[in-house]
Every structure is written in structure tokens, then in C-alpha cells.
Specification:
Layout: H1 3-27, H2 67-92, H3 109-132, H4 136-159
Length: 161
């Protein structure tokens, strides 16, 4: 870049900085209530706090922690724990992680455990999101997909020792 262009850009930057630095004071000015006619200035009515209300249960809208979800979440946690153990044993015996998302966590056992715990929590969180948005089939399907993926990973780890 030539020195002429550099000096012009520096001057332009200084001018823009000065404008920005001086403008907030112009934008922060407010109309004084003393200048307004008295009929326009009225006291604010007090706000009453809202009373909590319970919404009626929608038909067919079961509770989130029902028996089926509890069993699915327990199975998700068990399969993820088994996947963690199989993956850790595979890595210790010279194997490598094929999942590119999990691969950065394979440098230590605590990181790998954190990954699988996060996977379990994420599955439960996504199920809860689907529950709240009324997608109850997807709510159950989320855990089933996670269980299936972990089962496939366990099978792969155990067959490729």
C-alpha cells in the first residue's frame, strides 16, 4: 500500500472515530418533562403482579418423566456407558476412534467420559424439546436412535479388538 493511500485511510479512520465518539452525546438527549404541558404528563398507574395459573392438561399429553421415557433414558445411559467402556478399551489396545466428533475427546479418559455423558444429556435434552413442542413420536425416537447408534458402536468395538 502506498503512503498516500495509507495517510488518506488514516485520516478517514480518524474522522469516522471522531464522529462516532461525538454522536452518542447527541443521541442521549431526552425531552425534559418540564417542557411538556401538564395535561400530557400523567402519573403511571400501578402495575399489579400477574397471578400464576395452571394450564389444563392437553388430551394425550403425558408427563415427560413417564415410565416409558424413564426406561428409554436408563437404556440410553447404559448403552452410552457401555460404548464408553468399549471405546476406551479399544483405544488402550491401539485402536482409534472412527467418529470425527468424538475423536478430539480420545486424548484422555475423563474427556472421553465427558463426551459420552454429554451425549446422554443431549439425547435427554432433545427428547424434552420434542416433548415440549408436541412431537411425542420424535421424543421417543430420539432415545431409540441413540440406543441403536451406541449398540452399533459397541458391536463394532467388540468385533474389532
Amino acid at each position: 500500500m502506498t503512503t498516500d493511500l495509507r495517510s488518506k485511510l488514516t485520516s478517514a479512520a480518524a474522522i469516522i472515530f471522531a464522529i462516532i465518539a461525538l454522536c452518542p452525546s447527541a443521541f442521549s438527549q431526552q425531552v425534559s418533562y418540564n417542557l411538556l404541558p401538564p395535561e400530557l404528563v400523567s402519573p403511571v398507574s400501578p402495575v399489579t403482579p400477574a397471578q400464576p395459573q395452571t394450564l389444563p392438561q392437553l388430551p394425550g399429553h403425558a408427563k415427560f418423566w413417564d415410565r416409558e421415557n424413564s426406561l428409554l433414558f436408563a437404556a440410553t445411559a447404559a448403552f452410552n456407558m457401555s460404548d464408553f467402556i468399549a471405546t476406551r478399551n479399544n483405544l488402550r489396545s491401539g485402536g482409534h476412534e472412527l467418529n470425527p466428533i468424538t475423536r478430539p475427546f480420545t486424548t484422555s479418559t475423563p474427556l472421553l467420559a465427558m463426551n459420552f455423558a454429554g451425549e446422554t444429556a443431549g439425547s435427554i435434552g432433545l427428547s424434552y424439546f420434542f416433548h415440549k413442542t408436541g412431537h411425542h413420536k420424535l421424543e421417543r425416537l430420539t432415545s431409540l436412535v441413540n440406543i441403536s447408534a451406541s449398540g452399533a458402536a459397541i458391536t463394532f468395538d467388540l468385533t474389532h479388538r
